[in-house]
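Quick note —
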Amino acid sequence: MFTPARYVIVDDNADELKQLADCMQKIGAPCLPLRYDQAEGIETRHLGGVRLLFLDLHLTTGAQSGSIAQTAGLIVAMLEEGIVATAGPYVIILWTKHQEQRAAFEAYVMENLDPLKRPLAILSLDKNNYLAGDAGEKLTTDVGQIIETDPRLRAMLDWEREVLKAAGATLAEIGSLVAKEDRTAARFSERLDEILSLLAFEAVGSANAKADPYSAVNAALMPILSDRIANQRVDPKSSAIWKAAVTKVEDLSQPSPAEAAKLNSMLHIAKASSEALRSDAWGAVTLLPEAELADAPMMKRFDLPAKPMLSGTFCLTEKGERSASRLCLLRIGASCDYAQSRKGPVPFVLGAIVPAEAKRREGLPKAEIVTPPLMIDGFDGPVRIIFNTHLQISMVPAEFAAWPALCRLREPLLMQITTHGARHTTRPAIISFGSHGA
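Predicted structure written out below.
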């Protein structure tokens, strides 16, 4: 229910923990102070959404005189358990009296921590500068300044702040629909229920809204949220922040094929590991099971035998590349039909996942469309998906419900594919003479 803490402080000294926490509060960064217990440690789940992690380097008694491996090993174990790789980047700010050990600590962390859980940067504050009783103002100033030393960190926090601002504005707009006379303890919540129910009903219909109210309301609010993120008034300071963070636009080298595929996948692919994917989800890509690759089911569904499909229909000329390829289905259809869980056959288009640089013969079918290079779980290296929009079929859910979805194409790429298919299937033709040259 609650958003994970973005700013977390870990220290075994209660007074020094409070000193830093108070300064964070003064600069408007509400933080979660965690006192490290010698026997119990901390509840590492509180690190699951951290952006700035302030860490005392020596969390156990006597650690100052021990090796850096002992000190850093304790912290690495804590990070391995608590950091969530899918929660986004974070930065460690050491809060320590032993600045001379920072470099060794950084080297140990970068060598021993899971690469997907490593921090964006490791910065530091020297506790020795703030031990005097009147050092609070200096600490407040220095905390603000150290956050500003990494332009990418500032940009990351700025973007997240703008998204939260847009989400807050969207919620405020929903609340504004409650009339003044209904803003009472007895009526306010009930009226919000009515508004959310109306949004859910209009988005996906009564039965679907009742079955999955979250998805129903989400379908109504997402376009508003997306529009607000794109068009809301941006803080004037943001322009300077982003200019400092994004500096290589005019001096870019082309990404390698693998890097390009990773970038494309970030933009266009939702992984099964990051969401609850079903084979009937709009845009879901599902590998054809082995039993479906025999000639009999392929002839029944596509009027084509299975064996020459990759060499014939998908025009792959190299045997080795055909062996590395797999046939798949893409769930297409009208978005409103999917959103409203309309009963009846579900439409799919046949595709082939092939090596990104696979050799193909000339004269490719006009019905096909090819994705940019992608990285897809289960395949070695970059791949492309070739879809032949002439080969569309419909199946009832019972036929494919047990087939696991491989991934999902996000809406922009999915719409490009379905639009190409719609243009191809509705292309006009006429009988004419004298228009083909001599």
